[in-house]
Amino acid sequence: MIDRYSRPEMARIWEPQNRYQKWLDIEIYACEAHAELGAVPADAVERIKSKAKFDVARIDEIEMTVKHDVIAFLTSVADYIGDDSRFVHLGLTSSDVLDTSFAMLLAEASDLIIDDINRLMAVIRNRAFEHRYTPMIGRSHGIHAEPVTFGIKMALWYDEMRRNLRRMEAARETVAYGKISGAVGTFANVDPRIEEYVCRRAGLKPAPCSTQVIQRDRHAEFFTVLAVIASSIDKFAVEIRHLQRTEVLEAEEFFSKGQKGSSAMPHKRNPVLSENLSGLARLVRGYAVSALENVPLWHERDISHSSVERVIGPDATIVVDFMLNRCIGLIDKLVVYPDNMMRNLNLMGGLYNSQRVLLKLATAGASRERAYELVQRNAMKVWTEKKDLMEELLNDDDVRAYLSEDEIRDAFDLQYHLKHVDTIFTRVFGG
User: Fold this and answer.
1) Which helix (H) or strand (E) holds 205?
2) Distance between first and last Cα of the chain
3) What is the pLDDT of residue 3?
4) N or C: fewer beta carbons within 10 Å in the chain?
5) Which domain holds residue 314?
6) Contact between 220 and 295 (Cβ < 8 Å)
7) Average pLDDT of the chain to the nearest whole number
8) Cα(424)–Cα(427) distance, rounded to whole angstroms?
């Protein structure tokens, strides 16, 4: 299922071939920097660059014996390079390679997710303008409140995803730091200029200060942002699930020809895409908790973070990529029912106008407490006796003492509630 909706580019980022290639790039960059400083013969670096390769199967085989992935990698590379391999990994520790490459991988994944967000925002924007003036009832606590438009709902989602875009761009910057500072981060066996060179070639910035590892608050921020993005999608999905409920049916997931909703009940059309997104969001929030747990490490470094990141690095980015692409299709094909929206809007006998009547009474001289009492006692008849609020108000002598028939009828104008739609759209989308 994941493969159908996530782009293959995201999965390829985390494949061993790409991961080990990043390791090799870092090792070669370090050799080049050593050569510039005169610590490694330039001709040796050229031979290293021409011969350097690795074999994934061979690395796996070596690791079975040495129980150390970086040593297994270096051994495989040395098989190709020969004697000049003594200049590879000079002064480096394993985490110099692991953490710098992890930053490169996360930066690559970030670029895809940022592109996903931009495409989702474009789809939401289109639906917002399509239904800019499509009225529907707004709800608070799940109960009818006052009218909104479906376009305003979409504008809200667009604005939220724009914040997520900014968060993701900031998280990419935060995590795109490398380190080539040695076993405890003191540069005792590797010149700081090596780090500057490697990071520049890798498209990263050097961490101003590190231990044996890059500090994991950076990664915690990254994975927390992914969790926020997933939670926004979860929010959209939950709303769609509510709107698709049979009693509401104001919007519905596209149901394709030949699709089946239930093995037992042929009539079912279930919000399965939205439910899937809600479930996946729970996973991503769990990954964020795991990343936060990685922040406190023993002294200059322990290895408790490593096993976690081997899972959450690929899983969280692939799942979020999947969620964004599934959400794009979901919203783009979402079936909207304006007639049902209007039916539900009028379901409660005009109750959504209660506040406007309250304000009119207060303006006409009634105290707020008296105005509230007058409106509420008539509104309760609508709830319990299926009355019409306007008719009840027109027949209430206490209300008529303050308001004329025209003033009461004017309080039930739907457009009153929608008069600032354009203002909201200008704020969200610009002029």
Assistant:
1) strand 205-206
2) 40
3) 47
4) C
5) 94-189+203-256+264-342
6) yes
7) 96
8) 5
Question: Rounded distance, CA 389 to CA 381, Å?
Answer: 8
Q: Which residues fall within 8 angstroms of residue 230, CB to CB, at 6 or more apart? A: 280, 281, 283, 284, 285, 319, 320, 323
Instruction: Kindly give the interhelix angle for 217-244 and 272-293, rounded to the nearest 10 degrees.
Output: 160
CATH number of the domain enclosing 407: 1.10.40.30
What is the rounded distance in angstroms from the CA atom of residue 284 to the CA atom of residue 201?
31
List, as one string, the DSSP characters of 361-388: HHHTT--HHHHHHHHHHHHHHHHHH---
Pair 38, 174 in one domain: no
Q: Side chain identity at 40, as an amino acid letter?
A: V
The sign of the dihedral angle between the CA atoms of 8, 11, 15, 17 is positive
Neighbours of 137 (CB within 10 A): 22
Cβ contacts of 144-147, under 8 Å, gap ≥ 24: 144/344, 144/347, 144/348, 144/351, 144/352, 145/352, 146/352, 146/355, 146/417, 147/345, 147/352, 147/414, 147/417, 147/418
Whether residues 155 and 53 fall in one domain: no
Separation between Cα atoms, residue 420 and residue 73, nearest integer Å: 63
Which residue do the tokens 């590879």 mark? 88
Structure tokens at 77: 């590379």
Q: Quote the CA–CA distance of 256 and 260 in Å, as a whole number.
A: 9
Whole-number pLDDT of residue 4: 56
Helix residue ranges, H only, 250-303: 272-293
Q: Distance between CA 196 and CA 186 in Å, rounded?
A: 14
- 14 by Cβ neighbours in 10 Å (0-12 / 13-18 / 19+) ranks as middle
Compute CA 13 distance to the chain's CA centroid, rounded to the nearest angstrom.
19
Reported as a single tens digit per residue, the pLDDT across 168-179 is 999 999 999 999
- Residue count of the chain: 431
What is the DSSP-derived secondary structure letter of residue 247? Answer: T
What pLDDT sits at residue 201? 98
Spatial contact of 362 and 158, defined as CB atoms under 8 Å apart: no
The ranges of the chain with pLDDT < 50 are 1-3
248 and 180, same structural domain? yes
Sign (positive/negative) of CA torsion 137, 138, 144, 147? negative
Residues labelled catalytic: 141, 262
Q: How do residues 393-420 score in pLDDT, each as one tens digit?
A: 999 999 999 999 999 999 999 999 999 9
What is the spatial distance between Cα 148 and Cα 125, in angstroms, rounded to a whole number?
Answer: 17
CA–CA dist 292, 290 (Å, integer): 5
Look at phi and psi of residue 383 and say left if phi exceeds 0, alpha if psi is from -120 to 50, else beta: alpha
Does this model's pTM top 0.90? Answer: yes
Here the CATH number for the domain that contains residue 149 is 1.20.200.10
Cβ atoms of 169 and 70 closer than 8 Å: no
**The residue type at 176:** A
